[in-house]
Amino acid sequence: MKKTSQVSRSGRFSREVGADVAQFTQSISFDSRLWRHDILGSMAHATMLQKIGVLSKKECAAIVRGLDAIGREIRAGKFKWQAGLEDVHMNIEAELTRRVPAGAKLHTARSRNDQVALDVRLWLRDEITFLLGEIAGLQRALVSLGEKNSGVIIPGYTHLQRAQPVHFAHHLLAYVEMLERDCERLWDCHSRVNICPLGSGAIAGSTLPIDRALVAKLLHFTDASGKVQLTQNSMDAISDRDFVVEFCAAGALLAVHFSRLAEDVILWASAEFNFIKIADAYTTGSSLMPQKKNPDIAELARGKSGRVIGNLVALLTLLKGLPMTYNRDLQEDKERLFDTADTVRATTRLLAAMLHHTKVNPAACAAAASDPALLATDLADYLVRKGMPFRQAHHAVGAVVGLAEKTGKPLNKLTLAELQSVNPVTGTKFFGRDALGVFDLKRAMAKRNLTGAPGTKEVAKQLARWRAQLS
Ligand code: ARG
């Protein structure tokens, strides 16, 4: 390992660290991906140092040029990262200083503690924006699939037992709603990510008259009204990772939503349901069973929620016993954060692509939705309309279901006399000729039009609302 430690090891150290120590303590293997934001932060910091007279105009320009050149090399894959330089901050600063002597002034009034907090905030701010775009894409995929199958009705399930009929699109739109709440949570988290910690130093700010607001403005740390957002306590600012936890918590719930969607897709794709067919390109085969077509994307979406939940727990555990302020433990936050961000983003994209390549089997859906038992509740509502208290109506229809089971007839094939027979006293009063009309599925769906209900008109309205909102 090269001796490259001038940047952080002061005159106080008599020896270099051993290779095993360097390997154990390095973070360059994973934090190098912060390079773009590290460079942007340094450019803003240098600009401010020039404004307050720490750097001359020439020095500042040379530093910005040097950082820009380093950035280009990194992007082109030509930059040599050095493990001996520990992390992304020291790698870039050391190389800059090697090329531009004034680089030695760049760390004035700055510590890696506020620098890393800045870099992660800048990185996460972008990441949230990208993720929100991907989630909107998935929402659009769900809406499209619903629109293409707007006439399809399936059983809705509670306890995984057939409950009541719903438009297939209504089921899909349930996920659009969940994803919208995920977006709101991510935006909310964004408002707390978007606060500039630079100027907090190692723990206690600086005695130099730096201009925190200028740096924050240059890096767009402003709220919707343009007000500059600065952290208000230097100790909190350098040890705060709440925003990482918040993102990973929002990510965990997002992953749980993916997992539930995946589970529905997996069930629907089974021979038993047969509601959907996922295109070959989005399924995989079995190495042994030639007939298999497996919904692996959905299975992995479900499976990956485990690691995303794990990342959140790891972060909370990491933070819970930390004394103020910065402790090196905090370096462990990044892999968990990156893993959550990468996992949820990839899953969002793949689920959207899979849904765009999924076809619904209308015949199988219609066959399942034609089960008249799905409309037993409608028969109870019919009795309520005739004046029967709901509890009695529930009981009477229970008896009708029992009779249907006993006689081996579907509910809608019982005769009026059979319906009336379940209550010799009130049966004839409440069950009329029109009673069996409740089993007309189309009419039943036309009746479900409360706000948020799965009926024909309401679902069409909701599809149109989402289409407009997402375009
Ligand atoms: N690589 C470090 C981290 O990710 C940067 C901050 C190091 N600070 C320090 N005082 N050693 O946390």
Structure, explained:
- By secondary structure, this protein is mainly α.
- It is 59% helix and 4% strand.
- The protein has 19 helices and 4 strands.
- The strands form 2 sheets. The chain has a two-stranded antiparallel sheet. Strands 3-4 form a two-stranded antiparallel sheet.
- A hairpin with a 2-residue loop joins strand 1 (153-158) and strand 2.
- Helix 3 packs across helix 8 (212-218) and helix 6 (112-148) packs antiparallel against helix 7.
- The longest helix has 37 residues, at 112-148.
- The protein is elongated.
Average of the residue pLDDT scores: 95
* Unreliable residue stretches: 1-6
Which structural class do you get from the secondary structure elements?
mainly alpha
Instruction: Name the overall outline.
Output: elongated
What structural keywords apply?
471 residues, mainly alpha, binds arginine, 19 helices, elongated, two-stranded antiparallel sheet, single chain, two-stranded antiparallel ribbon
In summary, what is this structure?
By secondary structure, the protein is mainly alpha-helical. The protein has 19 helices and four strands. A hairpin with a 2-residue loop joins strand 1 and strand 2.
Draw up the topology in text.
Layout: H1 19-25, H2 28-31, H3 35-51, H4 57-75, H5 88-99, H6 112-148, E1 153-158, E2 161-167, H7 168-193, H8 212-218, H9 234-239, H10 242-269, E3 276-278, H11 296-320, H12 333-356, E4 358-360, H13 362-369, H14 376-385, H15 390-407, H16 416-421, H17 427-430, H18 441-446, H19 456-470
Helix pairs in contact: 3-4, 3-6, 3-8, 4-5, 6-7, 6-12, 6-19, 7-10, 7-19, 10-11, 10-12, 11-12, 14-15
The chain binds arginine (ARG).
